[in-house]
Amino acid sequence: MTEIFVLAEHRQGQIRDITFEMLTKGKELAEKTNTDLTAVLLGKDVKEHAKTISEYAKKVFLVEDAKLENFNSEAYQKVLSNLTKEHKPLLTMIGHTSFGVDLAPSLAAALKLPLATDCIDLAFEGETLVITRQMYGGKVNVKAKVRKSESYIVTVRQAAFAAQKPNISGETMEVSSPLTEETTEKRFIEYVSPPPGGVDITAAEVLVGIGRGIKDESNMPMVEELAKALGGVLACSRPIVDKGWLSTDRQVGSSGKTVKPKLYIALGISGAFQHVLGMKNSDLIIAVNKDSNAPIFSFADYGVVDDLFKIAPALKDKIQELKG
Amino acid sequence: MDIIVCVKHVPETAEAEIKIDATGKAIEKTGLVFDINEWDDYALEEAVRIKEKSGGTVTAITVGPEDTDSTLRKCLARGADKAMRLTDPKFQGSDSYAIAKILQSTIKGLSFDLILTGALAGDDGYTMVGPILAELLGIQHATMVKKIEFDDGVAKVNRELEGGLEEKTEVKMPAVLSIQTGINEPRYVSIMGIRKAMKKEIKVLGLADIGLSESEVGETGSWIKVEKIFVPPAEKQAEFIKGSPEEVTTKIAEILKSRGLI
Fold first, then answer.
1. What ipTM describes this predicted complex?
2. Which residues of B touch A110 (CB under 8 A)?
3. Greatest CA span in chain A, whole angstroms?
């Protein structure tokens, strides 16, 4: 019987959520395809992690090596190539994370196995893997067939599947590390934390989130005033930080902060997944966007399809008027 | 340093309303404005900055039909020295894997110290051309790069991780680095630059020139075959507030008041 591999992702002593999300989906796929679910855990001194993960998978392959202490695609690729060649898993699931996108493509190319990235759903139709993913910043979904193969590799979008703890007590099998010589072509040096910012957007009760629709830096004071009128602070999606209009500590989303304010007003934010991941659990979301089909409207409680340059100043005036 | 930058010509859709076309497998392209992929724009700028600092050349390469020339012209205007377009009807239907093979077959004959790509493309978002290209060329890679420093045959890069964290990683050169947006501030193009760029040659190569077989490109050479595209099913649907700005903001104020937010 073949198996489904889930590559465990962990960083700085923490198992990352994507691991449990993939193990949950992996279990469902294993049951449907009559295969076993195997978690693959690489690291140094990670037996505790192995114990936690064994509650989600029938088997845990544990490979421990000082060279695997921090993520390194070169070292990880060597270990995973060996395991894949030996066990020929039907499917290997890797997170579509910064870690996963550095590893999965070169691993797939080296093994000549087909790869589908950033999947939000997976199913087997016979022996063919059928995946769902998004294009154009989440404006459309794509259903696609992956070229027929004995073994597939996918990267899975964060939060695409909800993690559920099953009633499993799996077995951990230690596998000796195949890394013999020192890895020389790629080397992890250190983690770099962002500089502490002046504003903690995760503590704010009201956030006015701005995106690409703001168009020009000269429009910043207008939204700043709205935020002030509401007693809140400005937050933003990635393009605003890229342009240097707000600092990194204001960024909401997968590469920024996760926020849960009482009110989140999204202005000119289309609602790409990377941003939505950081704000969808806000108590109340009001979105203003010119495009009635913008994905943000699938996450907002209230939507306004209009020009934010008309709505935002009018709302500021209205709030100020009410507050006297 | 001789740098190759791989760029893609994509429709701008961030603020456009998009429609699914009659085939059900692609979006309606008419009416959309095409430009250099946003991530590639940062990659090109980074390459030009490295050249300006330490000398060498920048070559921009794209795979696509003739109308992608506008993206290559933009690269030339921004400071690229040479431009190459890989064009063949057989390339139609290529996914990122097939594109990486086309690029590899072309690049292996060129001399280079560094290859830069965008971390992903704003249209299909596969996030894989750079590291696959590196693997096929037998060199190292780093993705999601936010900072580059060079030191004695290695590139020291900052990779963006989740939650605002970065990691510093060292890769041996030559390497492929996939660039994340925000690494720099892409420059505006001067009128002079555009005029000069119009006169520069764009080298065009096809399937036969790069020595790949037909089965390695297009749909047969790809991993992914699109079956259909569709509007994502909504988790929930916002309640739309309609009317004049006065009516809309009055309603919003009522909602905020009822929740004790004002």
1. 0.96
2. 135
3. 73
Inter-chain CB proximity B248 and A314 less than 8 Å: yes
CATH code: domain B2-216 is 3.40.50.620
B240–A117 CB contact, under 8 Å: no
Order of strands, edge to edge, in the sheet holding A233-236?
A233-236, A206-210, A263-267, A285-289, A302-305, B239-240
Nearest to B123 among A136, A155, A244 (CB): A136
Give the CB-side neighbour count of residue A277, counting CA atoms within 13 A: 21
Q: Is A172 exposed, middle or buried (0-12, 13-18, 19+ CB in 10 A)?
A: middle
SS3 of A18-77: the string is: HHHHHHHHHHHHHHHHCCEEEEEEEECCCHHHHHHHCCCCCEEEEEECHHHCCCCHHHHH
Find the CB nearest A188 among B126, B169, B230: B169
Asked if A55 and A170 touch (Cβ cutoff 8 Å), the reply is: yes
Whether residue B236 and residue A117 make contact (CB cut-off 8 A), yes or no, is no
Q: Which of B20, B158, B181 sits opposite A140 (nearest CB)?
A: B20
| Radius of gyration, alpha carbons of chain B | 21
Residue of A298, A308, A311 to mutate, testing the B interface (most B Cβ within 10 Å of its Cβ): A298
| Chain centroid offset of residue B14 CA | 14
Strand partners, B167: A191, B159
Instruction: Give the ranges where A61-169 is alpha helix by DSSP (H).
Output: 73-87, 98-111
Q: What is the DSSP letter of A182?
A: P
Question: In chain B, what are the helix, strand and coil shares in percent, each to the nearest 5?
Answer: 35, 30, 40
* Radius of gyration for the alpha carbons in chain A, expressed in angstroms and rounded: 22
Q: Locate A172 and state its tokens.
A: 């951990």
Residue the block writes with tokens 């916002």: B238
CA distance A12 to A75: 18
- Return per-residue pLDDT of chain B as tens, 262 residues: 999 999 999 999 988 889 999 999 999 999 999 999 999 999 999 999 999 999 999 999 999 999 999 999 999 999 999 999 999 999 999 999 999 999 999 999 999 999 999 999 999 999 999 999 999 999 999 999 999 999 999 999 999 999 999 999 999 999 999 999 999 999 988 888 888 899 999 999 999 999 999 999 999 999 999 999 999 988 789 999 999 999 999 999 999 999 999 8
Report the alpha-carbon angle A46-A51-A54, nearest 5.
120
Question: Cβ–Cβ of B246/A314 closer than 8 Å?
Answer: yes
User: What domains does chain A contain, in order, with CATH numbers?
Assistant: 3-175 (3.40.50.620), 201-323 (3.40.50.1220)
8 Å CB contact of B226 and A143: yes
